[in-house]
Every structure is written in C-alpha cells, then in structure tokens.
Task: structure prediction
Amino acid sequence: MENRFQQNEEENGWGAYVTPPPITGLSTGESAAARGLCARVQERLPMLAERDPLLTPELVRSLEQHMVGCADCRREYRREKRLTGLLNDVPAPAPPPDFAPRIMERIERGDFPRMVSVDGLARPTIAREAAVEPTIRREVRTALGQQQTPTTAVKSSTVSPARISVTQPLATETHSLLMLVPRALAACVLTASLLFFISTSWGREALGANLPGVRAWFDQMGALFERVPLLGRLTAALAASLGQLGELLSETYRSLGASAARGLTLDAAFLIAGGYLASTRRARGQRSGA
Amino acid sequence: MQQSDADLVRATLCGTTAAYNGLVERYQRQVYNLAYRILGNAEDAGDLAQETFLRAYGALGSFRQDASFLTWLYKISSNLCIDHIRARKSRTALSLDVEREEGREPAADLRATGPESAAIRSAVRDEVQRAVQNLPEKYRVVVVMRHLQDMSVEEIALVLDMPSGTVKTHLFRGREMLRSRLRSALDMEANGE
Result:
C-alpha cells in the first residue's frame, strides 16, 4: 500500500492527518482504485474506525461515499473496526487482592527505593531543594557523581527511574521544617554576636582599639615575607587550609536557603561596615583627644 | 467526600503514610493493567506495578503536580516496563518478530479453530494479546496506552515525553503490524458480515 507519509514520517507522522487534504475525485469503481484513491482512503480508515475528531464531517462523508461502491475499502474498513473491537476486548485483569497491603507493608518497613526525580515530570526545583534538605543534596551528589546534580531533568525515553536511585532519607516538608529550626538558631546567634560587637562599648573598644595594632602587624608581616619568601608560601598554604573552614561556613549559609543566606550576608555586611566606621571614628576621637 | 489526589499527596508528605494507601487503592488497577498488557505476564506485572508505587512514594517530594498523579504513575510504570522488556529481550531466544523477519509465518491460524464459540473468542483474545506483546516495544507501549488503557494521544505524548506526531506514527505502524498479524481473525469477522 502506498504510504505518502513514509518520507518524513518520524517528523510528521500522523500529524499529517491534522489537516487532511480534501480527497478530490472520490468515486467508485476500478478507475478510482487505479488512480490510487483506494490507497489514500485506506490510510484514513484507522481514524474513521476510531471516529477520530480530527476527521472533518466532510471527509467522513467522502470516505463513506467511496466505500459504498468499493468492496476492497469496505473490507479494509471492517478489518479496522474489528481490530479496534478486538483491542478493546482484551481482558483487564484485576491486581491480586493483597496488592495494596503488600505495598504499604514495604513502605512501613522502609523497603522502597529513595528517589530524587523519577522522570521529567518530577523535577525538584533548586529553591525547593535547598529548603528541603542540604545533606540529601550532598549525598545525592556523591551518589550521582560530582558532575550530575539532582536538579538535572531526566528524560524518560533515555534514563529510567532505576538508574537514578540513591540512598538518602525521604525528604518531606515536615522534615525540612524541623531541619530549619537549628539553622535559624545559628543565624540568630551570628547576628546577635555581630550586634554585640557594634552596640556595646566593649565590642567597639575591641574592634576600634585593635585596628591600628592589626594594621601594624600586617605591615611587619609584609616586610617579613619580603625578606623570607618561603615563609610567604607557607602562609599561603595555611590560608588554603583555612579555606576549608570557609567552605564549612558557606555550607552553613547554603543550608539556610538562598534567600535567607543573602539576607543574612547583607545584614552582616551592613553591621561590619557600621562597626568599622564607629570604631575608626572613636579611634580618631581618641587620637585627637590625646 | 472523596479526598483529591493533591490532598492525599500532601497528607503523605506530612507523614500520614496511610494517605498513600488511598492513592494505591485508587490507581492500582490502572497501573497493574498497563504493566500486564505491556508485559503479558501477571507475575511480572504485579512486581512492576508494585515497584511503580514504591518508587512514586520514594520520589513523592519531587512530584510537582503539574500533571495528574495517574499520568505520573503511568510514566514511572512505562519506564519500568520498557526497561524490563529490554532486559528480557536480551534473554529471550526467538520472538515472533524474529520469525517474521526471517520470512516465517506465525503458527496460529484462527480460521483453523472451527466455528465461532466462546472458546474461539477466548482464543482470539489470547491471540490479540500475544500479537500486542510481540509488537516492537515502541509500538506496543503506544498501542496499549491508546487502545487498551484508553488514553488520548496527547496524554501518551506527555507520559512518553515524545511529540504527539510521533505517537500517532507509532500507533499507525503498530496497528498496521497488528492488522497483518491478526489477518485471520480480522478476515473471519470481515467475511462473516
């Protein structure tokens, strides 16, 4: 049978049926079959058998008119209808009676695969993920490899759920809320200590009084590094290890969630700037007084 | 009043595991049937349908509700079935497809079974089920979803993550293959009218 959709079927497929061209010259008898009309009619028969709404009433009428006088197409149409009937007639067995209880029993036991995203429909967003459970993200990164993040959309046609199962605890909203409490406490402690340094005279004293001393210390160290370059390199190594501490701190910030971290950073920046200004003014006042 | 899927999902996420039981009972038949009709084997279908619900539970936190819960289950289930078919294919020696490719006709000839009766009807149903199972995987899944699960082309496209034009192409090809494989059964009816 001639198939005019063969050429670029993958691109268009039955999409070519979306606006079926009108079949001109539909008539009965051998002459119509000779012109390939029967082949074109038969291509549309599956749609007709299913009463596809994409078929216009005019086209349905044309097809039916053609079949009145064409035994071949009539037989093909009966086959199509019969096929649809047979497919609809395939039995639909019920699941075993203990199907649901068995599932629930396994869930109660904790015997189920923990997933990040099972398909393209279930992509966790970055914000939500950050709010849910950062330790999960860390474990997931480890499980998936560093290059792949759990936010990657997984196409169902290429990657199946089985390939992305990981072993972290189930993340729930309740869980995430509980985990936020200690982080909020940590944020409060950090902000309170900054406020203490700025608002109390002792704190300002500590910051302001030491500033010239710190500056002088840096000057001395700079001069020392110039004289002994090896010492400079050793100090750089020390700074790198301190970077690990920075990583830890940044992880704490991340765990607060993106917006909370930004807000806290801004608060801290303002407080430090304010404290620095206050302490320098105080130091200047002391110097002028002296 | 029956709780909506969204309510049950929310309750499950808040720790009420029993709420998930409601979802399982609501959709177990559809999920089990999809697996059964794709795999054609009650034991495998039971295992994969169970696995579908367990995986959905494990990933419930990532279900964004931009599609229905059943569509999401279908997606997980069809992925599992496709994986299973591929794994099984590598183990299976000779399928009906291979026989066809090699120019051999399948053995069943329904016209040989005699006059129409309940036994023949049952034999025809078995033959149809067998013919569906022997379709190439990509055609089988869409044929099952469209004709046996009564899903729309758009829904299938969403579940399988492919353009609806491709779904239609696969349906067309699948039906064409079925027509040729079930010629005896189809002709028996067509000539009978």
